[in-house]
């Protein structure tokens, strides 16, 4: 397998943890790349040019960290990443983690390309408030019980 990633992607870190947990790291070539580059090797693999991208042993191209994690859970060794027991609680916590990661990532990207004033915009403010609310309830697992 080949994993296309860069050093700053929190999404790629999620996939790397899954590779270790599922004992698949030795079977995976890490392909470091710049997803922002117009001549990126990544563009030859996927038109999305998104990190992470996994090319499976069968040649399928998978994007999106949680979808890649689901695939690795199915093909790897060891304990399940998504146990049947407590699945809803695990997914609820994973959803909070994913949302927190997305909000923080988008704050960083927004500031990089729009400057610090982007935080004052409606979207920037919404992201910051989402981060604050999520951190305030962490690590409480949302449950309807």
Automatic annotation (TrEMBL):
Q: What Pfam families has UniProt attached to this entry? A: GST_N_2
Question: Which residue numbers delimit the GST N-terminal domain?
Answer: 1-80
Which parts pass through the membrane?
A: none
Q: Read off the InterPro entries from this record.
A: Glutathione_S-Trfase_N, GST_Omega/HSP26, Thioredoxin-like_sf
This protein's source sits in the domain of life called Bacteria
Name listed for the protein in its UniProt record:
Glutathione S-transferase N-terminal domain-containing protein
